[in-house]
Fold this protein.
Amino acid sequence: LAQPAKEGGDARAAVWDPSFLVVMCPLPICEVCISFPPEGKNMFDLQDLFSYNKRYLRGRMRSAAQREEGRPVEHEVYIDAEVETPPEVEAQIRRAVLAALEGEGIDTPCIVEVCVTGDEGIHQTNLETRGVDAPTDVLSFPMFELSPGEKPQADWADPDTDKVFLGDMMISLERARAQAAEFGHSPEREVCYLAVHSVLHLLGYDHLDEGPMKVQMRQREEAILGKLGLTRDGP
């Protein structure tokens, strides 16, 4: 993997040499090794590198075993509430995120982070990230540039968690409640709609063209909400 350190130096230090990668790497995942800094830079500890690769392989094998055995995929949803958020609302958001991932057939364990805030908080983030000086209902920050229907791969997983971090979303609970009253349905449907909408953005869906892309996204939203019992004619 690397040339030994010069005599008298730290025996665990290494300098990158791609020729050693091809000849000496004992692991079948050299694509991971070459993600480290390029030739000539002192940059990593060999023990850390092998530890990284072992965790990486463990994650890939675990995901494959789950699929083969038919076990449910263990996604994680982390919720950070900047405003007072009832436990049942957090549960609704978590359920909607998981339903969207399941509905899209995501079979690699993923992590989604959700920030629940108010109009003031989302207004500030909207201004900082998009240059829009106004509040909105939901913002999405995908980690990957996916296309609709494209799935995250197991080898994208963080080796420390064995899961793929899909991205973040920010939901204004204040705006969700106001829109629920405006549209004449329950706050639960609106909160779940925003969560599902954002997950689809994380997975590459969009509605910028106001045409086929928007229709495709709306169809997926309603299909997922329907499985949650939150149809347009429902609560």
